[in-house]
Amino acid sequence: DRVLTTCGAQALQYGTTEGYLPLREMIARHSARYGIEVTPDNIMITSGSQQALDLLGKVFINPGDRILVESPTYLGALQAWNVYGAEYVAVPSDDNGMITDALEEALRAGPKFIYVLPNFQNPTGVTLSLERRHQLIALADRYGVPIIEDDPYGQLRYEGEHLPSVVVLDGQFRDNCKNTYRGNVIYLSTFSKILAPGLRLAWVVAPPEVIRKMVQAKQGADLHTSTFNQIVAYEVGRGGFLDQHIHTIRKCYGERRDVMLGAMDSYFPPGVDWTHPDGGLFLWGTLPEEIDTTELLKVAVQEKVAFVPGYPFYPCGGGKNTMRLNFSNATPDNIRLGISRLGKAIAAAQMKK
Fold first, then answer.
1. pTM of the model
2. pLDDT 10s digits, 258-287
3. How far apart, in Å, are the Cα atoms of 225 and each of 45, 100, 138?
4. CB 29 within 8 A of CB 226
C-alpha cells in the first residue's frame, strides 16, 4: 500500500534496464558490509538469478564453448546454458567444495568461464574452503579465465565463521581500487532466498563493461525487471525489516537442518552418507552404488515422501546413487516423518540388491 500511495505512478511505469537506482544504491551499501566494494554502476537488477544466468549465456557462450563447473553443480545453470550449445568441463568436489588440485588440468581445456557456488552449494550444501578460494582465484588469473560466483545462500549461515566471497578475495588479489570494481569475478545474488521468490528479483555485480553488455542482452529479453517489485524490495530493505527477517529465517532453517540431520542419524540404514551443510537449504545423500535413486524415488513417492535424484546435477554423467534433500520447506515434525519413510524405502532397496 505504501508503494502505491507514495510513488504509485513511478512504480507502475517503465524503468531503466539497469534497475531502480535507489535499490542498486542500497545493494551497494549492503554489499560493502560483506567486503564487496562497488558502486551502482557495477550492479544490474535481473528478474531472478535464473535470468542472470541466461543473460550470461547470451553474452558469453557460443555453440561448442566449454564451461568449467563443479561436479555436481546447479541444474538451473546447465539448463540455461544448454540452450546456447555449451559443453562442460567438470571438476569433482568433496566436503570442502571444488577440488582445486584438479582445476589446472581442467583449465587447459580452454573454458570460456568458471562457474562456482562457493557457499552452501546447490545441490550438495558444501562450502568452498578459504584456501581453495585463493587457489581458484590465482589459477583463474594465470589462465585468463573469468569466474562467475553464484551466491544465493551466502547470508543463510547457521554455524561457523563467515568466509569472504570470491569477488572480495579477487579484489584483494588485484589490489582493486574501491571506486569501481573491475576484477575477474561476476557475482550473482538474489532476494529469492532472503525475502520472497515470487518477487523474481536478483542482481549482478560486475565490471561496468560487462554490465553494459548484459544491459543490451536484457533489453531484448524484457526491457527491465518489474519496477513495482523493485520498489517494494527497496522499501522493505531500507526500513530494516530485511535484516530482521534474515535473522528469523536463519534461526528457523538452522533448526530444520538440525532436525533433518538428527533424523537421518536415527532412520537411515548403514551404507548411506550425507553432507553436513553450515548453511543454505540443501544437503546431499550418497547411497551404495548399486542403488539408483531414480528408481528409489518411485518407491519413496508411494510412501508419500520425495527428493530430487542426483544424476541431473552431473554435467558429464554419474551420480545415479545420489540425491538432494531440502530442509527449509517442511516443519520439524514433517521432516522427521519424511526421513523415517525415506529410510524405510532405502532399507527396502538395499534388501533387494
1. 0.95
2. 999 999 999 999 999 999 999 999 999 999
3. 7, 36, 35
4. no
